[in-house]
Amino acid sequence: MNPFTYERAMASGQALRAGSANGVKFLAGGTNLVDLMKYGVEKPAALVDINHLDLARVTTGPDGTTRIGATVRNSDLADHAIIKTKYPLLSQALLSGASPQLRNMATTGGNLLQRTRCYYFNDVSFPACNKRAPGSGCSAIQGYNRIHAILGQTDKGSKSGETCIATHPSDMCVALAALGASVEVESLRGKRTIPFSEFHRLPGSTPWVETALRPGELILAVTLPPAKFSKNAYYLKVRDRNSYAFALISVAVGLEVINGEIASAGLALGGVALKPWRVAEAENSLRGKAPAQQGFRQAAEYLLHGAHGYEHNAFKIELAKQSVVRALTLASRGTSEGGEA
Amino acid sequence: MTNPALEQPDLNDFEQEEHELERHSLYSELNRRTFMQAAGAFSAAMVLGLPETAIAKDPSQAMVRSVTLAVNGSPRQLSLDSRTSLLDALREHLNLTGSKKGCDHGQCGACTVLVNGRRVNACLTLAFAAEGSEITTIEGLARTADPKEISELHPMQAAFLEYDGYQCGYCTPGQICSAVAAVEEQKRGALSIVSLHTGKMERPEMSDDEIRERMSGNICRCGAYPNIVAAVRTVARGESA
CB–CB of A27 and B61 under 8 A? Predict the structure, then answer.
């Protein structure tokens, strides 16, 4: 691990001032950051510990929105009365991820900033990784790419400085995408709000730019719009083990069903791209119809439009489509009726 | 003629995947798997070399300062490098070697300790960040430190003894700390994905499926799982071991 200084911030002004310097990282749960520092992937010059700031509250506003502070732990969030009853999709996604120990440490803001679990990004003995070493190429495109992207990736060959087929590993973020959340951030220049769909970046021509965060910006909170999917929500996670494994495919579904018709739908895919994958046509195609298999399959086709697989992950395209149909089916039966996936 | 009883289980799929990993030079993934498969800590140590403790390559650049950790009810003052994990602070500086270093990356759970009553991975916790928190290790669970005084053990320790919840014992301190917290979480009504999938959200019961899910952050490569589940089940149901 590289040497670094440690500063515990006791007030947000102190954190923002300290965080404005070059090479500084904010430390929250540390479950990903400290791990990557041990691998030599992250080499911050300084850590600013934000765990003692007043950012650990979950509150509901008069407009029906729910604001989740950046340092609310994954375990506390999943078990929070507001989240369990009004946003069960989020509880399901949180409890599908990691282990109890990690969920006790990991935070809401930190989860958004999780780095990819691409083997080649995490192992510095591979010189080629455009995320870790911009311009160096991509080891995964011709490597063991079973856990890699099928949507939104940049593929200009292994030598290109733009190629990246990594995926975002979070479960929580897939649910937040389906719920239409937004992210509140602050720096010395002030506060701003970023829609969730714009927070994470696809690789494009700059795979090393992963989020819309500007230098020195601290995530303060994630805000959820008024709840409308509490009765018909399902988070389906398909993985190699039944517990404590990253998703090959995950699907977050929220349906607002009124008089037997779908009034609105939130639908996002995980494990397929560098950000939770949402397609407006897929959600719109469900609207105004009774929940039925044919419509579910159509939504899945919209969602997977343009998907492209590689040597070891092409199976994920059909797996994703069938997972979407299954998640929509289970969600349409009702949140508490979903049963074992 | 081969005796079917002596044949290995069908490992074709597994071997094929290992071959793929090898073909693509994914040695880190292979090493991780080798560790996970290793029958015990010693064989793992031989394969990998024991994970290093955080020692500064150039101590002049490191940030060393005094830090006070509250461990098992006593304040302990230490001079530590900022890079020191809570696990290394406990093992290397306080000689509390009950907490174990398995993977050192938050994957195996052998380092599980309680911080303010919550189970966490001590390997991913920086010692500086743990200052001001109450830390409980396996050494602090029993009311007496004398291992011969079985009656004074924490009920979970007694249950692990009674049900043989271990073989080599390397993962056991982490398993026990994790299990103590798992039972407390269930008692206060904390949910797991099993509670959500079975619809038992009001008062999740400690069924064997719940125990397996809630203990999934602790790997036992000896495969003592059935006995670990039995031990946790006994304590969760308030039966004495």
Answer: no
